[in-house]
Every structure is written in C-alpha cells, then in structure tokens.
Automatic annotation (TrEMBL):
NCBIfam families named in the record: Na_transp
Coiled-coil intervals: none
Topology of this chain in the membrane: Multi-pass membrane protein
InterPro entries: Na/ntran_symport, SNS_sf, YocR/YhdH-like
UniProt name for this protein: Transporter
A Pfam family reported for this protein in Swiss-Prot or TrEMBL: SNF
Membrane spanning stretches: 42-67, 88-114, 148-166, 178-198, 218-244, 256-278, 305-333, 345-363, 390-408, 429-454
Domain of life: Bacteria
PANTHER family linked to this entry: TRANSPORTER
The keyword Transmembrane is annotated on this UniProt entry: yes
UniProt KW keywords: Membrane, Symport, Transmembrane, Transmembrane helix, Transport
Subcellular location: Membrane
Similarity comment: family membership: Belongs to the sodium:neurotransmitter symporter (SNF) (TC 2.A.22) family.
Length: 463
C-alpha cells in the first residue's frame, strides 16, 4: 500500500506559493514577532533579524526545497535517499522532535486566539481599557478547562483539513485564506495610523538604537528567523516535495520571505501604535498581542467588527501554519511507517492534545502548573526554547551542510535551474557560496553563544 500509491502534490506554482506562505505566516508574525521585537529593543534587533533572513534563512529555505523536490519524500525518507550515512538521519529525528515540541505550545496559543473570537462576539471587550484587557488575558490563560478545550478545537480543525489531503485540504484552504488575511491586516493598519502613538511606533521599529542590542538578542533574532520562515524542521522539505517540476524554487523562497516580512512589519506597526498610544510596555511578553489589539479597535465605529476580523485572521494564520508542521509528521508516518493518512492524523492529534495540555496549563501566574519548572523554565517556555533556539537552528545547520558539502553540485544546479530552463546560473553560484561558507559559520557562532560556550572561549582567550 505505502509505495504504489501515487504521491499527491500542489497543482501549480501559485498554489505552492500560497501553501508555503501559509506555513510561514502564522502566530510567528502576529503573536511572537511583536513581543520579541518589543523585548529586544526594536529597530536594531530588526536589522539583525533581516540579516539572519538573508544570509541564513533564504539559503536554508532553498536547500530544504531542493532536498524535498529532488527526493519527493518526507524529511526522514529524503535524508535516507540523499546519503546512506546513518548519522545524517539526525536531521529527520530533529525535525520530527521539533514538530512535536512546537505543536505542543503553538496549538495552545492558537487556542487563545480562537477563544478571543468567541469572547469578542460575546461582548467581553466592549468598552475595553488598558487594565481590563490585561485582566482578560490573565483569565484566558488561567484555565484550567477552557484553554485545553480551545486547544483541542484547534487540533480538530487542523486534523479535518489534513485528512482532506494535499490538494483538497492544504492547497484549497491556503489559496482562499491567504489573500483575505492580507486585506484584513491592511485594514488594521489604516486604523492604527489614526492613533496618537503611531509616530513613536515607527521610530521604535525603524530608528535603530544599537545600545539596546545584546548578544542574547542576536541569538534570539536567529531563532526568530527560523521560526518565522518555518525552517530547520523539514516543513519546507515536505512542501518542496509537493512542488511541480516547473516551480522556480529561488523565486518562491524570495517571494515568501519578502511577503512574510511585510506581514510581520504591518502587524508590528498596529501593535506598537497601540502600545505607545495607551502607555503600555513594549516588553510585556507573550500577552502583548492580546492586550494591544483590543485597544486599537475600541471606541471607533465598526470597532467590534474589525476586532473580530483581526482575530479571525489570526486564527486563519495560526491554522495554516499548524497544518504545515503537522504535515511533517503525517508525511513521515504515512511514507516511512505505512500508516493511513487518517490514522496518522488522529493518533498524533491525540498525543499532541495530551502533552500540549501540560504546556498550556503552565502559562500565567494563576494557572495550574505555573510553578513547575525544568532547568528554571516553565513547561511552555522550555518547549519554545528547545525548539526555536536549539532544534531548528541545528536542523538548519545540518541541512545546509548536507546540501553544501554532500550533495553533488552539478545536481543542485540542475534541480534549482529546472534542468537549465531557468537562466539563473549566477544566482545559483552565489547561493552555493553563501550556503557553504557563510550560513553555517553564522549558525555555529550563534549556536555556541546560545549554549554559553562562546563566552567561555572568549574568556579563556582574553584571560
Ligand atoms: N512559521 C510559522 C509562524 O511564523 C510557524 C511554523 C510553521 C514553523 N511551520 C513551522 C516554525 C516549521 C518552525 C518550523 O507562525
């Protein structure tokens, strides 16, 4: 059964673009990007983030597409096909582990977002003030029952779409929803431009002050770049394996990275305009989105309607991104283990709901598991930290090395130029150089400093 079934794929380049963009654009842009930029001081951090996207993110993304489209397999199958050396299988193991870790907490945050749509409809945010929105967020995460139920709802929605398959599920949903999302964000920004804090918001985001930048911040920028572009886990390998032979992989990667960054900045402008208009803290952490957006839309005509639209949009983004993480697992279990699609989806959803509940119940001071810590971090934070700052960058580094040093250069040229049809030899040469000599070195530096080794070496040298 498992090998003779014809493999599904995306029907066109446009479909591939929307699916990939649907993976990249998610809670990363709407929830994580604003608070991480806020905690790390704004514009200077952003510049480092852009550098990470260009020098590491894009080359790794193209490499993932290459691995996927060349082998037409899931992350583990793809690596096994590219090299017989067993140690490279760690790429597959890291990817699968990262998919679980991220889904444990990501589906929980998606649940808060879904629940906001319901709460706004119910009128909980009528006449919102800076204090009341903070209280609302605390109540949302406190639980113990509601956040778990919402997390299960998210997993159910994602599962139903995934059981539909690649074309009828992933492709159809992303192609319709991504354009809607873009329009809604623009509407949000138009409103934000009328807020008094808009000027300050622009200078926070675009006027760099390097005294705010820390070495820890550089590392976080790299982790954010990986998280944002869905790299290091095999999502882009899996989606690449569904691309058509005509797809321009460079073009798709560049368009996705640019569009994704624009979405993040547009959301950032709205969030920080609210922060500076209502005297909130830019560094308020994971609750930032939930405490600012309701204020952006309070006290204006159609405010409630726009607020609902925003959280519907955020739910859409979270859903299409979750789908792309889950697909890594589904492709693995169906192709490597011979499971049916339906069985793979349902069993994994149950496991993720179960362990994810522990993560979700650890957020906020009043929640059930708030006191439980591992290595000094709460359960939610440990899954986030291990995946974004360790598993994804290490997975990305190994994939960069696999493509840069193990795969034959002639083959890479052939694959990326679609057998010579695309006249992009110069771009390919430049990419190959960056992939071999720049991305891995940057990643190693950032990684060593993340585990504190670099500081120790510098201390040893300098005495
Ligand atoms: N990029 C998505 C976001 O920004 C999250 C995501 C989807 C992801 N698939 C991934 C992150 C794979 C890392 C790896 O919300």
């Amino acid at each position: 059964m498992k090998n003779n079934k014809r493999r599904e794929g995306f029907s066109s380049g446009l479909a591939a673009f929307f699916a990939t963009l649907g993976s990249a654009v998610g809670l990363g842009n709407i929830w994580k990007f604003p608070y991480v930029v806020g905690e790390n001081g704004g514009a200077a951090f952003l510049l480092v983030y852009f550098a990470c996207i260009i020098l590491v993110g894009l080359p790794v993304m193209v490499s993932e597409f290459y691995i996927g489209r060349k082998t037409r397999k899931n992350i583990m199958g793809a690596v096994k096909e590219l090299t017989t050396k067993k140690r490279w299988r760690s790429i597959g193991i890291i990817g699968i582990l990262a998919a679980y870790f991220i889904m444990f907490f990501y589906t929980g945050v998606a649940g808060w977002v879904y629940s906001y749509v319901f709460k706004i409809l119910r009128g909980d945010f009528n006449g919102a003030t800076a204090q009341s929105v903070q209280q609302q967020f605390t109540n949302t995460t406190a639980g113990p029952v509601a956040p778990i139920v919402w997390q299960i709802i998210v997993l159910t929605v994602v599962s139903v779409i995934l059981i539909g398959g690649v074309k009828k599920g992933i492709e159809r949903i992303t192609k319709t929803l991504m354009p809607v999302l873009f329009i809604l964000i623009i509407v949000c920004d138009i409103r934000a431009l009328t807020l008094p804090g808009v000027k300050e918001s622009f200078s926070f985001l675009f006027k760099p002050d390097f005294s705010h930048l820390t070495s820890q911040g550089i590392l976080i920028a790299m982790g954010l770049a990986f998280f944002k572009l869905s790299l290091g886990m095999g999502t882009m390998v899996t989606y690449g394996s569904y691309f058509t032979e005509e797809d321009n992989m460079f073009g798709t990667a560049a368009k996705v990275a640019i569009s994704d960054t624009i979405v993040s900045l547009l959301v950032g402008i709205a969030v920080f305009s609210a922060v500076f208009s209502f005297n909130m803290e830019a560094s308020s952490g994971p609750g930032l989105l939930f405490m600012t957006i309701p204020l952006v839309f309070s006290k204006i005509p159609f405010g409630k309607f726009l607020l609902i639209a925003f959280f519907v949009l955020a739910s859409i983004a979270a859903t299409t991104a979750t789908i792309s993480m889950f697909e890594v697992l589904i492709a693995y279990y169906t192709e490597q283990k011979g499971a049916s699609r339906k069985k793979a989806v349902i069993l994994n959803a149950i496991v993720i709901a179960f362990i994810g509940a522990f993560s979700t119940l650890s957020v906020g001071e009043t929640s059930l598991l708030s006191g439980v810590t591992i290595f000094g971090k709460g359960i939610f934070d440990i899954f986030d930290f291990l995946s974004s700052n360790i598993l994804l960058p290490v997975g990305g580094l190994l994939m960069a090395l696999l493509v840069g040093y193990i795969a034959p250069k002639e083959d890479i040229k052939r694959e990326l130029s679609n057998n010579g049809k695309l006249k992009i030899a110069n771009i390919i040469d430049f990419y190959y150089f960056v992939l071999r000599y720049i991305s891995p070195i940057l990643l190693v530096i950032v990684f060593l400093s993340s585990v504190g080794v670099l500081e120790k070496i510098i201390k040893l040298i300098t005495g």
